Amino acid sequence: GKKAMKSSDRGYRRPQRRPMPRLKDGQGTLDWIGDVVKVVLIIVVIMFCVTMSHRAYEIGYSIFYEEAVDEKGSGRTVEVTVTDGMTAAQVGKLLQEDGLIKDAEVFSYQERFSSYHGKIYPGTYTLSTEMTPSEMIKKLAENAPAEDDAE
Fold it and tell me: Half-sphere exposure (CA, 13 Å, Cβ side) for 53?
């Protein structure tokens, strides 16, 4: 009959098993919790980036595609008083509170990119909800002294 092969015959070597590392009590659970926390943090970061990208797009779109609050013929007029030292952001907040514009933050950017940047002049103005933000900025700057006059 046949003889049983020994491990030394024909260079055959039986693979050795590595002993399983001994886990401390609860270590497997901690690893699992750590993985879950990592996944949740990644999801939160992605959601934050998507939200901020969406907001940035909305602001950029609103700056260059201006809309009046009301359509022509359905607006109302509002008297607004701009005091000395008001910033464009403060004027924007005032206009938003009066319902003349939709977003004060966007208004400050629109003022920054307009040819009337820094020219909003103190005074009382009659504005309409039918006006675009650019038209309002132009109106708010119409009483500003010419640059030649400033000394």
Answer: 6
CB atoms within 10 A of CB 125: 17
Tokens read off for 41: 């943090």
CA–CA gap between residue 95 and residue 104 (Å, rounded): 7
Are the beta carbons of 125 and 140 closer than 8 angstroms?
yes
| Alpha-carbon distance values, 52 to 11, 40, 44, 46, 81 (Å) | 64, 18, 12, 10, 34
Whole-number Å distance between alpha carbons of 149 and 121: 14
pTM: 0.59
Q: What is the DSSP letter of 124?
A: E
pLDDT of residue 96: 93
What does the pLDDT read at residue 24?
59
pLDDT along the chain (151 residues), means of 10: 58 72 63 89 97 90 81 85 90 92 89 89 91 91 69 44
What is the Cα 60 distance to its own chain's centre? 10
